[in-house]
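S1.2 Input.
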Amino acid sequence: MARRKDQDARRAELGEAAQRALLSRGLEGLRLKDVAAEAGVTPAAVLYYYGDLDELMYETFQQAIERFCRAREQAAEQEPDARLRLRDCIASGVATGPDDLLPRLLFEYWPRSLRDPRAAALDSALTERQVAVYYGILVLGEAQGHFRLADSPRLLASSLLAMEDGYQMEVLAGRRTRAEVIGALHAYARAVTGHDPGAA
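S1.3 Output.
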Protein backbone atom coordinates (compact mmCIF):
# COMPACT_ATOMS: atom_id res chain seq x y z
CA MET A 1 0.00 0.00 0.00
CA ALA A 2 2.82 2.40 0.88
CA ARG A 3 4.46 1.72 -2.49
CA ARG A 4 1.22 2.51 -4.28
CA LYS A 5 0.90 5.80 -2.40
CA ASP A 6 4.48 6.68 -3.27
CA GLN A 7 3.85 5.93 -6.95
CA ASP A 8 0.67 8.00 -6.93
CA ALA A 9 2.51 10.87 -5.28
CA ARG A 10 5.33 10.69 -7.83
CA ARG A 11 2.85 10.65 -10.74
CA ALA A 12 1.11 13.70 -9.25
CA GLU A 13 4.46 15.49 -8.98
CA LEU A 14 5.27 14.65 -12.59
CA GLY A 15 1.85 15.91 -13.65
CA GLU A 16 2.46 19.23 -11.91
CA ALA A 17 5.91 19.47 -13.49
CA ALA A 18 4.37 18.73 -16.91
CA GLN A 19 1.89 21.56 -16.43
CA ARG A 20 4.63 24.03 -15.52
CA ALA A 21 6.78 22.95 -18.46
CA LEU A 22 3.83 23.12 -20.85
CA LEU A 23 2.88 26.61 -19.76
CA SER A 24 6.50 27.71 -20.06
CA ARG A 25 7.36 26.19 -23.45
CA GLY A 26 4.06 25.43 -25.16
CA LEU A 27 3.03 21.97 -26.28
CA GLU A 28 4.75 21.95 -29.67
CA GLY A 29 8.13 22.84 -28.21
CA LEU A 30 7.85 20.61 -25.19
CA ARG A 31 10.39 17.81 -24.72
CA LEU A 32 10.60 14.98 -22.23
CA LYS A 33 13.78 16.45 -20.76
CA ASP A 34 11.92 19.73 -20.07
CA VAL A 35 9.43 17.91 -17.87
CA ALA A 36 12.19 15.94 -16.20
CA ALA A 37 14.17 19.10 -15.45
CA GLU A 38 11.06 20.78 -14.05
CA ALA A 39 10.50 17.77 -11.78
CA GLY A 40 14.17 17.52 -10.80
CA VAL A 41 14.54 13.97 -12.14
CA THR A 42 16.05 12.26 -15.17
CA PRO A 43 14.07 11.56 -18.36
CA ALA A 44 14.42 7.86 -17.56
CA ALA A 45 12.65 8.46 -14.25
CA VAL A 46 9.72 10.04 -16.10
CA LEU A 47 9.57 7.06 -18.45
CA TYR A 48 9.38 4.71 -15.47
CA TYR A 49 5.87 6.07 -14.84
CA TYR A 50 4.77 6.99 -18.37
CA GLY A 51 5.39 5.26 -21.70
CA ASP A 52 6.21 8.53 -23.42
CA LEU A 53 5.62 12.27 -23.28
CA ASP A 54 2.27 11.96 -25.10
CA GLU A 55 0.93 9.66 -22.41
CA LEU A 56 1.99 12.07 -19.68
CA MET A 57 0.43 15.06 -21.45
CA TYR A 58 -2.79 13.14 -22.11
CA GLU A 59 -3.13 12.35 -18.41
CA THR A 60 -2.25 15.94 -17.51
CA PHE A 61 -4.96 17.27 -19.84
CA GLN A 62 -7.46 14.74 -18.53
CA GLN A 63 -6.86 15.83 -14.94
CA ALA A 64 -7.05 19.51 -15.87
CA ILE A 65 -10.43 18.93 -17.53
CA GLU A 66 -11.73 17.16 -14.44
CA ARG A 67 -10.62 20.00 -12.14
CA PHE A 68 -12.08 22.68 -14.40
CA CYS A 69 -15.41 20.92 -14.94
CA ARG A 70 -15.85 19.90 -11.32
CA ALA A 71 -15.28 23.46 -10.13
CA ARG A 72 -17.71 24.78 -12.70
CA GLU A 73 -20.39 22.24 -11.90
CA GLN A 74 -20.09 22.99 -8.19
CA ALA A 75 -20.30 26.74 -8.81
CA ALA A 76 -23.49 26.28 -10.84
CA GLU A 77 -25.17 24.19 -8.13
CA GLN A 78 -24.69 26.58 -5.21
CA GLU A 79 -27.95 28.47 -5.74
CA PRO A 80 -31.50 27.10 -6.16
CA ASP A 81 -32.50 30.07 -8.35
CA ALA A 82 -31.58 29.58 -12.02
CA ARG A 83 -30.89 33.30 -12.42
CA LEU A 84 -28.12 33.10 -9.83
CA ARG A 85 -26.88 29.84 -11.29
CA LEU A 86 -26.54 31.47 -14.70
CA ARG A 87 -24.60 34.37 -13.20
CA ASP A 88 -22.27 32.02 -11.34
CA CYS A 89 -21.81 29.68 -14.29
CA ILE A 90 -20.72 32.53 -16.54
CA ALA A 91 -18.33 33.86 -13.91
CA SER A 92 -16.78 30.44 -13.30
CA GLY A 93 -15.99 29.90 -16.97
CA VAL A 94 -14.09 33.11 -17.71
CA ALA A 95 -10.35 33.36 -17.03
CA THR A 96 -9.17 36.00 -14.59
CA GLY A 97 -6.46 37.11 -17.03
CA PRO A 98 -3.46 35.90 -19.06
CA ASP A 99 -1.93 34.20 -16.00
CA ASP A 100 -4.96 32.07 -15.11
CA LEU A 101 -3.17 28.73 -15.24
CA LEU A 102 -5.97 26.19 -15.64
CA PRO A 103 -7.68 27.80 -18.66
CA ARG A 104 -4.25 28.41 -20.19
CA LEU A 105 -3.37 24.77 -19.77
CA LEU A 106 -6.58 23.67 -21.49
CA PHE A 107 -6.04 26.02 -24.41
CA GLU A 108 -2.37 25.03 -24.78
CA TYR A 109 -3.39 21.40 -25.24
CA TRP A 110 -6.41 22.02 -27.47
CA PRO A 111 -4.58 22.04 -30.88
CA ARG A 112 -3.58 18.42 -30.25
CA SER A 113 -7.26 17.51 -30.64
CA LEU A 114 -7.09 18.46 -34.33
CA ARG A 115 -4.78 15.51 -35.03
CA ASP A 116 -5.08 13.11 -32.12
CA PRO A 117 -8.36 11.16 -31.70
CA ARG A 118 -7.72 10.57 -27.98
CA ALA A 119 -7.19 14.28 -27.39
CA ALA A 120 -10.26 15.05 -29.51
CA ALA A 121 -12.35 12.72 -27.34
CA LEU A 122 -11.17 14.52 -24.21
CA ASP A 123 -11.96 17.90 -25.73
CA SER A 124 -15.45 16.67 -26.68
CA ALA A 125 -15.99 15.52 -23.11
CA LEU A 126 -14.92 18.95 -21.85
CA THR A 127 -17.37 20.63 -24.22
CA GLU A 128 -20.26 18.33 -23.40
CA ARG A 129 -19.89 18.70 -19.66
CA GLN A 130 -19.95 22.48 -19.92
CA VAL A 131 -22.87 22.50 -22.34
CA ALA A 132 -24.73 20.23 -19.91
CA VAL A 133 -24.27 22.77 -17.11
CA TYR A 134 -25.65 25.62 -19.21
CA TYR A 135 -28.45 23.39 -20.51
CA GLY A 136 -29.55 22.43 -17.02
CA ILE A 137 -29.61 26.06 -15.91
CA LEU A 138 -31.63 27.18 -18.93
CA VAL A 139 -34.21 24.39 -18.50
CA LEU A 140 -34.48 25.14 -14.78
CA GLY A 141 -34.87 28.86 -15.42
CA GLU A 142 -37.66 28.24 -17.89
CA ALA A 143 -39.41 25.89 -15.45
CA GLN A 144 -39.09 28.47 -12.67
CA GLY A 145 -40.64 31.11 -14.92
CA HIS A 146 -37.54 33.31 -14.96
CA PHE A 147 -36.38 32.70 -18.55
CA ARG A 148 -38.16 33.07 -21.89
CA LEU A 149 -35.86 31.09 -24.14
CA ALA A 150 -35.42 32.37 -27.68
CA ASP A 151 -34.50 28.90 -28.99
CA SER A 152 -33.94 25.35 -27.83
CA PRO A 153 -31.99 25.15 -24.56
CA ARG A 154 -29.43 22.83 -26.16
CA LEU A 155 -28.69 25.32 -28.95
CA LEU A 156 -28.50 28.25 -26.55
CA ALA A 157 -26.24 26.34 -24.17
CA SER A 158 -23.90 25.44 -27.03
CA SER A 159 -23.89 29.04 -28.26
CA LEU A 160 -23.10 30.42 -24.80
CA LEU A 161 -20.15 28.07 -24.51
CA ALA A 162 -18.89 28.81 -28.04
CA MET A 163 -19.00 32.55 -27.34
CA GLU A 164 -17.28 32.01 -24.01
CA ASP A 165 -14.49 29.96 -25.60
CA GLY A 166 -13.89 32.58 -28.27
CA TYR A 167 -13.69 35.37 -25.74
CA GLN A 168 -11.55 33.22 -23.46
CA MET A 169 -8.72 33.33 -25.97
CA GLU A 170 -8.96 37.12 -25.96
CA VAL A 171 -8.61 37.19 -22.18
CA LEU A 172 -5.67 34.79 -22.19
CA ALA A 173 -3.98 36.86 -24.90
CA GLY A 174 -4.50 40.03 -22.85
CA ARG A 175 -6.73 41.69 -25.44
CA ARG A 176 -9.89 41.78 -23.32
CA THR A 177 -10.52 41.90 -19.61
CA ARG A 178 -12.53 39.38 -17.65
CA ALA A 179 -15.10 42.11 -16.90
CA GLU A 180 -15.54 42.90 -20.59
CA VAL A 181 -16.11 39.25 -21.45
CA ILE A 182 -18.56 38.69 -18.61
CA GLY A 183 -20.43 41.79 -19.75
CA ALA A 184 -20.65 40.45 -23.31
CA LEU A 185 -21.89 37.07 -22.11
CA HIS A 186 -24.47 38.76 -19.90
CA ALA A 187 -25.69 40.74 -22.90
CA TYR A 188 -26.11 37.58 -24.98
CA ALA A 189 -27.82 35.77 -22.10
CA ARG A 190 -30.23 38.69 -21.69
CA ALA A 191 -31.06 38.58 -25.40
CA VAL A 192 -31.86 34.87 -25.41
CA THR A 193 -33.42 34.40 -21.95
CA GLY A 194 -35.04 37.76 -21.23
CA HIS A 195 -33.03 38.00 -18.01
CA ASP A 196 -29.85 39.97 -17.33
CA PRO A 197 -27.49 37.85 -15.18
CA GLY A 198 -25.73 41.05 -14.17
CA ALA A 199 -28.88 42.12 -12.35
CA ALA A 200 -29.13 38.91 -10.33
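S1.4 Remarks. The mean pLDDT is 91.
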